[in-house]
Amino acid sequence: MTSCNHRRKCSVQGCMEKGDIFHILPKDLKTRQAWIIFVHQRIPAKFYPQMFMCSKHFTKDSFQNLRHFKAGFAKLLLLKRGAVPTVSPSQTQAVL
Ligand SMILES: [Zn+2]
């Protein structure tokens, strides 16, 4: 994954997060579908595969290295395999 300076926007409707930490759609099909359902509430006929999800939609235990990341030991905040977003914009609370 390359880093770029473009400001990304979270794909979740109603989420105004424009931070730097975003997660891209996972390769695993099942997990991918769960992400898409979280964003669209269903599997749409067409969707934009360049989906970005900010960290706010995941619970703390969805991350592999939250502690390391917070302590500055890791540059990238990694999601656990199969981590699915569950926190909607109205429920978000600062994880980081
Ligand atoms: Zn978001």
TrEMBL record:
Keyword Nucleotidyltransferase among record annotations: no
GO cellular component, one term: nucleoplasm
Alphabetical UniProt keywords: Cell cycle, Coiled coil, DNA-binding, Metal-binding, Nucleus, Transcription, Transcription regulation, Zinc, Zinc-finger
Localization, UniProt: Nucleus, Nucleoplasm
Annotated THAP-type domain residues: 1-88
Pfam families, per database record: THAP
One biological process term in Gene Ontology: endothelial cell proliferation
Record function comment: DNA-binding transcription regulator that regulates endothelial cell proliferation and G1/S cell-cycle progression. Specifically binds the 5'-[AT]NTNN[GT]GGCA[AGT]-3' core DNA sequence and acts by modulating expression of pRB-E2F cell-cycle target genes.
Protein name, as recorded: THAP domain-containing protein 1
Organism in which the protein naturally occurs: Cyprinodon variegatus
